[in-house]
Amino acid sequence: MKISVANHVVLVLALTMMLIVNGEKQGRQEIGVGAILDMNSSLGKSIRISMLMAIEDSHGDTNNSTIIVPHFWDSKNDNIDAASAAIDLLKNTQVTAIVGPQQSSQAQFVLDIAQRSKVPIISPVTNPDISPIRNPYFIRIAQASSTQAQPIAAVVKSFDWKKVVFVYEDTDFGREPIPYLSDAMVNIGTEVMFRTLLSPSSSDDEILLQLYKLKTMQTRVFVVHMLPDLASRFFKKADEAGMMAQGYAWIITDVLTCFLHHVEPLALHSMQGVLGVKPYIPQTNQLTNFERRWKRRFHKEYPDTDHRVELDMFGIWTYDSIIGLATALKRVDTELSTTFKRPRNASTDLDAIGTSEMGPKFLSMIRDMRHRGVSGDFQVVNGQLQIPAYHIVNVIGNKGEKQIGFWSSRNGISNRIINNGSTDYTTNKDNLGAIIWPGDTSEFPKGVLGIPTGGDIFLRVGVPANGGFVEFIEAEIDPNTQEVKASGFVIDVFKAVIDALPYTVHYNLTPYDAPDYNDLLHQIVLGNFDMVVADVTIKWNRSRTVDFTLAYSESGVSMLVPAKVDDGKNIWIFMRPLETKLWITIGALFMYTGVVVWVIEHRVNKEFRGPPHQQIGLVFWFSFSTLFFAQKEKMVCNLSRFVVMVWLFVVLVLTSSYTASFASMLTVQKLQPTVTNIYELIARGENVGYQDGSYVRDMLKSMGFPSSKLKNYSSFQEYADALSNGSKNNGVAAIVDDVPYLKMLMAKNCNKYLMVGPTYKSAGFGFAFPKESWLVDDFSRGILKVIEGQMSAISNKWFGDAAHCPDQNADVQTFDKLTVASFKGLFWISGLSSTYALVVSVFKFLYEKKEILISQESFYRKMTSIIQSFDEEKDRKPSETGTIHPLPSPAISVDQI
Prior knowledge:
Distance between the termini: 167 Å
Strand content: 15-25%
Number of helices: 30
């Protein structure tokens, strides 16, 4: 009986309340507010609950004559659906404002539509490119992602970390703050060494491979910007890779810090020691009570939620913004209008929407609003939410975080919120509370380490798959076991260096079929390999994209040519000291000198007269007899004596040089190169070989070799065959390559080839790593240790011992022939002297026979008379001592000079 009475009383009270509420509503005006949210996301659910609670709380004010009616649309995480929802809300529902959407790409569509309709958009998007200043109908009820760049930079600066790596998801959300973070790092003098993008769809193995790559970086400081789903998998794999250990520092951005309650428990356990930043919201009794109510409402609306539910900053700001919206509507109560002005003849759906009469009237009130809300002092200025400071937190325990300090634009890092007007900016880490770093240590990481801590190193090593010089490196995959088998000089050096490192390095060799080594090195830049092990020459242009270790091989580029058999028994060996051009030049000068002497002496010296055939023989005899200073003919003219004197000096120099060169040639090693100079190949038009894909081709072309004379080869056997064939048989006269290749070819063909010519500088072979990799220094030290110890044994294994080829000497002193250039000055002196004497003698003779020249005879008769006169003997009266007395003449004869 009592129960029935109680139920009756409750029913009466409920009906009474309904009548009262209905009576109140009858005098109120309904105002539609749209909401475009992703209803399946945690953020969408959080904003919806906060929005409903704010609307209900605003209706509780009996002085409020307006009722906000929400109209929710599910964007389904799609830009087109979001735009369609906006059109429907504006055209059919004629809402006064729209809350959302959540994503920047969707907001761009919706904002353009709302701008035309003059309807405010209240959105939590963080993209700094969507600015309330450029879009007056856009009110951001969150912080732009660029704002967090300053507090993160302040944390980095406080610990004096000079190098950081950014890790972010490959989405619009992930890329938004990166340029601003980069600028902030530059401003504090910190270098961003690397940026790693991870797709939300990346597999765990792909994440792990990227982490191993990050592990090879010199820095141990990482800034992570991603959403909880990807972050959960990322940090679990980071822990698996040994990167959540002592010496590492991780900083997460505001959204992830705010949504730590959405991170998987196992991942949260892996994140212990991580630092994070998020906007500061003071913990007040009002906020505590609201959070309790919010959780009850959330579980009521979504009873099947399987994760830990926590009120986030977006839900708090949404609640305060709707309260502010309701307050603004109350202020314009008498001017409220829900109608849109529409054109009579609308050609499109957008034109048919029209423009809101209400939007512009209360826009200024919500673009600049301030009230005391659950978030504290809720303030929007020029459409942008203002926050006083940022929390700096440390991820500790199952609850997720512990507050360790604050950051504000006015005071920098501090251990409390400063409200006394102080403007002293500091980034002192001592202002932060106690921090537990990864590895459960209180010692803060140094940031840059030379030796890894917390686990071994795993390297993805790229090796060439198509190398023809298998003695240097050969890699292939076993078709049965799929195991990579690698061998060669380079592999032996690599393994020795790995053993010399002070820590364990695990590696996985991956053959890569590259057209050249530049493409192989580019795989490091693309992130496919952590290092490249190959016979790669260290070059300046390559060092711009990768870092090289110290060289582990001999440096330089040289030329290899076939060795000639000792030609000491060659019947023409006496010709070798002088080049052909020099022999021809000497012969021509001999003839010219003999002719000049004959012309001068013929008329006055009986020994230079006689039958023609005797005179021709005399010219040859006299010239060549001077080689041995055995000429018996006496000179009677001073001009001829002058010519002979100069010529005898030339002969002395030539014979002395020939004797010295010939002696040197006979005493040089028995093995002689077929070519002694690389430019001799150019002059002779010989073919030259080089390694396929090598930079040597460009070097040879710069020296003047035409492309048609350059032939590429890809194995030592091809080198040997080409040298054996020679240029005339479609082979080559020489091979130009790095010294280690040439020495290997010499070792395989004992006493068959010689290395000649100058050695052009190069840096040798080195291992390649990503730019700024700390492993470069450690591997370089390992190479030095191997060079001082095991390198001799490794070299002898692959290049052979020089003692096994006793006749071979890599430092053969090649014989250089004497050339015309060596005696050019001497030949000029001799030629000018002889020409001078010849000209003077001819002019003297013509002067004597001037009567013939000025006669009236024909030119033919004149020439005949001149020749006859030249062939006539001129009378001379020699003294008893053999001197020639001058003929009487009024003028001084040439013979008296």
